[in-house]
Write a structure and sequence with these properties.
It is a single chain. Helix content is 47%, strand content 17%. By secondary structure, the chain is of the alpha/beta class. The strands form two sheets. The chain has a six-stranded mixed β-sheet with strand order 1-2-3-5-7-10, sandwiched between helices. Helix 1 links the parallel strand 2 and strand 3 (52-56).
């Protein structure tokens, strides 16, 4: 039973909910929470009944960074043996779409956790930042890379080198988040978005997610080849045949996930 994570496999039909639960520490990501999150996501990714996952924290903090008390005395070898990389790689390789529902602080590792998700719904109170520079270090969970891709080099450089935060409104303007909603409505809005994804054909959703992510990891020619391959693969699925047949017959499709 997870100690720092609340898991609801069917919070909505086809949509699972993972809620970070270290309220006194503002959901700071210690090794135990990262392990629980990795294990839960692995199980949900393998669960055919789950088609999208929402990750959230509290109204005060999505996640306010790493657990600095636990990190302060670590050596480079300690960090290597702790294997933080596996955590971030598993999130990056998740086949199911991840929707972050963010209120309050999303800082350091918390910002990186939101960035590795596929979509972000932010409450008006949300603040995003990579303040690691103020602690004598820099983002180590993909923050420099994903932030630059999300908001552009100039703004990412400013945020990483100063440690300054941005508001939800600015995050929306910069393209970091999908939408901003009134405080208290971010989780429900994330569920609505996840439910719309869960209603789509799972094979096509998985291949489409892979193709969009590949656009940020390759040059255009390779990305176009990858997209074309995944496009052709959808024509081997039952859902593609059902989707097109339903369109022609003017009826709702009944996708079975194959």
């Amino acid at each position: 039973m997870p100690e720092f994570l609340l898991v609801t496999p069917q919070a909505r039909p086809g949509v699972a909910l993972l809620q970070l639960n270290r309220p006194k520490e503002l959901n700071a990501l210690n090794l135990a929470l990262m392990h629980e999150l990795r294990e839960a996501l692995g199980a949900l990714d393998a669960d055919a009944a789950v088609r999208a996952v929402v990750i959230t924290g509290s109204d005060r903090a999505f996640a306010a960074g790493a657990d600095i008390r636990a990190l302060a005395g670590q050596s480079p070898v300690d960090m290597l043996l702790a294997d933080h990389v596996t955590f971030w790689d598993q999130l990056r390789l998740m086949r199911k779409p991840l929707v972050a529902a963010v209120a309050g602080f999303a800082l350091g590792g918390g910002c990186e956790l939101a960035l590795v998700c596929d979509l972000i719904v932010a409450a008006e109170t949300a603040q995003f930042g990579q303040p690691e520079i103020r602690l004598g270090t820099l983002p180590g969970g993909g923050g420099t890379q994903r932030l630059a891709r999300a908001v552009g080099k100039a703004k990412a450089m400013e945020m990483v080198l100063t440690g300054d935060f941005i508001t939800a409104t600015e995050a929306l303007r910069l393209g970091l988040v999908n939408r901003v909603v009134p405080t208290g409505q971010h989780l429900e809005e994330a569920f609505r978005l996840a439910a719309r994804i869960a209603a789509q054909p799972p094979v096509a959703v998985r291949l489409a997610k892979e193709a969009v992510n590949y656009a940020f990891e390759s040059h255009l020619a390779a990305g176009l080849q990858f997209e074309r391959r995944n496009y052709y693969l959808t024509f081997a699925s039952d859902d593609q045949r059902e989707g097109m047949a339903a369109f022609l017959e003017k009826r709702p499709p009944a996708f079975n996930g194959h």
